[in-house]
Amino acid sequence: MQLLTTTKTGDFASFKTAFDADTEKRMNAGLTLMQMWRDADDAETVLCLFDVNDRGRTQDWLQTEQQTGTQVSGRFLKTA
Question: Residue 77: what pLDDT?
Fold first, then answer.
């Protein structure tokens, strides 16, 4: 299962620094980053594709991120 997140950032450099610092937190939530993209038409939008090994922990992580003010949304995906 994968998770595709969309995050609105004010400043990509600051976002990336914070994102890199939270690697262990995401790993503990059952996430492995597969790919990161910046929207070609909106430099403040970042999309990340994660491999999910524990949906419950991942859902808790996503909810916590949203409650702390991060403008992030996510969709769980299955290979078709």
Answer: 97
pLDDT band at 72 (very low <50, low <70, confident <90, very high): very high
List beta partners, residue 2: 51, 77
pLDDT digits (tens, 9 = 90+) for 19-48: 999 999 999 999 999 999 999 999 899 999
Helix (H) or strand (E) holding 59: helix 55-67
3-class SS of residue 17: helix
pTM metric for this prediction: 0.91
Q: What are the Cα distances from residue 7, in Å, to 11, 22, 57, 72, 79?
A: 11, 15, 19, 4, 23
Those residues whose C-beta lies under 8 Å from the C-beta of residue 37, and which sit 6 or more positions away, are 46, 47, 48
Contact 5, 59 (CB under 8 A): no
Radius of gyration of the chain (CA): 12
